[in-house]
Amino acid sequence: MKIIDLSIPIRHGEGRLGIEVSFDTPYSYDNCGWQGSVFSMFAHHATHVDAPNHFIQSGKGIDEAPLSKLLGPAGLIDLGDHGRAAGISGDTLEDRGRHVVPGDIVILRTNWTDKHWGADIFWSDSPYLTAEGADWLVERGVKAVVYDFAEEYAVRISGFRGEDCEVHHKLLGTEIYNIEYVRGLGAITGSRVAIMALPLKLAGLDGSPSRVVAIEGIDLPREFEVV
User: Fold this and answer.
1) Domain architecture of the chain: domains with CATH
2) Cα of 215 vs its chain's centroid, Å
3) Contact 87, 153 (CB under 8 A)
4) What torsion, rounded to 10 degrees, do the Cα atoms 81, 109, 44, 15 define?
5) Count of H helices and E strands in the chain?
6) Are 54 and 44 in contact (CB under 8 A)?
7) 141: alpha, beta or left, given left = phi > 0 and alpha = psi -120 to 50?
8) What's the predicted TM-score (pTM) here?
9) pLDDT in single tens digits along all 227 residues of the chain
10) Residues of 41-56 as b/e, b for ≥16 C-beta within 10 angstroms?
């Protein structure tokens, strides 16, 4: 069994949409002999999970995300030829994703994060999922989608509004969870793997930073009893 950490480290001073990650250590070895830190950040920076209420006003918060939707068998679709500003269509997903079955988590691998995370080009020129690509995922009956690129075209436009984000509405509106901005998908060797994405249980919030791993050499069921 091999565990592949797909999570991007979060560092002080980074951020997105004008919201900076901030770390502080009010309790330190110097002042009290132990260390205790605080942090603040945008819930959708670096590796994270979107909750439905990110774009669906009456949708569930991240604390209500069923864990059964965020772990299980996954089908990887290789899109490494989708580089700068390339749209990912439903036809492409149909052609390359025939191994994806209902109840899967889908991994869309472009390797864009590994090449450009931390640079402006990550946002401005990223590949993106088209509306028809989102329709394919809904029709296929998947339960979550893993991305290593900026998910849809609209988010690169300054001042974008929720109604501009058709892909987010199509997926979150059917409770397909977005597992966004992972890295290291090239370490996955086959087309089938297991995924575990565990967000913090932040009551009522619209997303959470998450530790996301792929596990090779293990067969997970599609359905779980969560107690």
Assistant:
1) 2-8+43-216 (3.50.30.50)
2) 16
3) yes
4) -60
5) 5, 14
6) yes
7) left
8) 0.96
9) 999 999 999 999 999 999 999 999 999 999 999 999 999 999 999 999 999 999 999 999 999 999 999 999 999 999 999 999 999 999 999 999 999 999 999 999 999 999 999 999 999 999 999 999 999 999 999 999 999 999 999 999 999 999 999 999 999 999 999 999 999 999 999 999 999 999 999 999 999 999 999 999 988 877 777 77
10) bbbbbbbbbbbbbbbb
Locate tokens 């290593």: which residue? 148
Nearest to 69 by CA among 155, 10, 141: 141
Give the ranges where 45-119 is alpha helix by DSSP (H). 90-96, 112-116
Vertex 163: Cα angle to 77 and 71 (nearest 5):
35
Amino acid code (one letter) for 147? Y
Dig out the tokens for 88 from the structure.
Answer: 């990912």
The pair of three-digit structure tokens given for residue 40, joined into one six-digit string = 């603040």
* 225/227 Cα distance (integer angstroms): 6
